[in-house]
Write a structure and sequence with these properties.
alpha/beta, 10-stranded mixed sheet, globular, 319 residues, 10 helices, 4-stranded mixed sheet
């Protein structure tokens, strides 16, 4: 059991489905935290909700969650952040945030700054706070403290263009956190946004050195760079109900397995099984509605893998 601290947004997803909206609890860091606790890791989550119906819904959900230590505060002067997930005319799903003076980035920084970092094997954080100057500066100082204490840091890029004034401002806001993460989750679309139209392999090799990088590619699978090797993983073929939170679920499975391994002495089989497990987590989430209902425990994931038709899904090479 790994001890993991997650800091970031918890919010309400309003998901359009056949001209109706379904309401579910979400937020990329929260999804990761919740799924990690389902996989039996000891998780502490720090976030905020508003003093409203949505905030009560979130706190009720996590009140009895096993392995989940909630540090979710209710802010009386703010509303809970809402993310609208709707389809455009081409069927592509897009997010739009109702986020003016809402709770997701209004952290109690005294609580965070005085954390005992020795209590955690890994600290993972999201990215929506980067749009707020004060929160970004505070988190920057916190990351510096983590580096000074040699605490393992995970960062999910999770770029949402509609919460920034411009892409250029977003690039400046992200730079420090991308550079200082030990483990980075990024998508192919985000590679293009932050590094231009380069080959994914070139970006991972030339721009994202000395770190573990997980590149998610949706139904095309994933690409991992670790210890000067690339590994690829194809997706499991499942009947998709929705893709909300699938990348977060994938990353939960990846962190769950990775934190139990010796990163300096990894062998290929360990990496392959880690990616397979992560991919299975993502597939299970795709086959259910919502971001955190894909599996109840690690046994569910292993059972899915064992029942899936056996075929080789990996390859690796040195660079």
């Amino acid at each position: 059991m790994s001890k993991i601290l997650v800091i970031g947004e918890v919010l309400i997803d309003l998901i359009e489905n056949q001209n109706k909206f379904n309401c579910s609890v979400g937020g990329a860091p929260f999804n990761v935290a919740y799924n990690l606790s389902s996989l039996s890791d000891d998780v502490t989550f720090i976030g905020q909700v508003g003093d409203d119906f949505f905030g009560e819904k979130i706190k009720k959900l996590i009140s009895n969650k096993i392995n989940f230590h909630s540090e979710v505060e209710t802010l009386n002067d703010r509303n809970t952040t809402v993310a609208l997930n709707v389809s455009d005319e081409n069927g592509n799903r897009n997010y739009s945030f109702l986020r003016k003076n809402t709770a997701d980035y209004a952290f109690n920084w005294e609580k965070i700054e005085y954390l005992d970092l020795k209590n955690y094997d890994l600290i993972h954080f999201g990215s929506l706070f980067l749009s707020d100057n004060y929160s970004r500066e505070k988190m920057l100082n916190f990351v510096k403290s983590c580096k000074e204490n040699s605490t393992l840091i995970s960062f999910d890029v999770n770029f949402r263009s509609d919460i920034f004034e411009s892409v250029e401002k977003a690039k400046k806001s992200y730079r420090f956190f991308i550079e200082n993460a030990d483990i980075l989750k990024i998508s192919s679309e985000e590679i293009e946004t932050f590094f231009g139209e380069k080959n994914d392999f070139d970006v991972l090799r030339e721009n994202l050195v000395n770190k573990v990088v997980v590149l998610t590619k949706g139904k095309s699978g994933s690409l991992l760079k670790i210890n000067n090797k690339f590994y690829t993983q194809t997706s499991f073929n499942v009947r998709v109900k929705d893709t909300i939170g699938a990348g977060d679920s994938f990353y939960s499975g990846f962190l769950h397995k990775l934190t139990k391994l010796n990163l300096e002495k990894l062998n290929d089989e360990e990496v392959m099984k880690t990616l397979e497990f992560a991919s299975a987590c993502g597939a299970l989430t795709c086959s259910t509605e919502g971001a955190i209902q894909g599996y109840k425990n690690e046994e569910d994931v292993l059972s899915f893998i064992n029942n899936y038709s056996k075929k080789k899904r990996f390859m690796f090479f040195k660079y």
